[in-house]
Amino acid sequence: MIARAVVFFVALAALMGATFQDVAAHLARWGRPELVYLPAALLAAALIAHARVPPRLPENFAWYLILALLAGASLATPWIPWIYVGVAVRPLLLLVIVLVMLRLRPRIGNLYLSGLVPGFLVLIAFTALLYESIPIVTDLRNVGVTHPMVERIPLPMANVAAAGIVVAIFIVASGIRHRPMQLNPSRGWLWAGVVAWVAGAAVSHVRMYLEYAHYALTVAHVLLFIGAFYLLSHLLPGREADRLH
Fold this sequence. Notes:
The chain has helices at about 1-20, 20-25, 35-50, 60-75, 85-100, 120-135, 135-140, 150, 155-175, 185-205, 210-230, 240-245; strands spanning about 115, 180. The chain has about 240 residues and is mostly helical. α4 (about 60-75) packs antiparallel against α5 (about 85-100).
């Protein structure tokens, strides 16, 4: 169990360090951007401990081998000369971590105190989180993958649209909207993140408040990540009755 927990922790901290570039930009004012891995590790440890993830991790060794390889590649990205590695590793690491979390065993407690996943909130919040974490269209453009129709769309709108499509596919393919979840604080974190994200996006159009908008979007990014982690770590197996609705 300890080895699985350590690998999962390192992978989660590596993902946070790779995707929280907004936090890294703020920390760069006081030192190197790599300082982002320190608060990332502290937050990852706190979330894993509070959600009691270690004893609930799946036992299949293959998951942790893949996580270790991807985490190592992510941490080594600054020293790898090929931009394709960084573009590919971040979404792959995110995907594998999510797949592992979808396979967590239920948390010990009263399984009857549960409710269904808030589908609309998940769509909006996860779209905002993916947009802040991995700018899909921007990354594809950086490696030369683009299309004339996409070029006509403003980059932020294209990134939001791409994130929304990916999240919608994930919700349908994973079936999480039909899965109950144990009681957890994810709704509060996700709603707070959505409100901060919308406020930051609105204020970003006013030049004199642009710096405050960056702070609001960074706070939103952290809140959304925490909410998403709590939600994914408290899912229960789907019930047939829920799928019929």
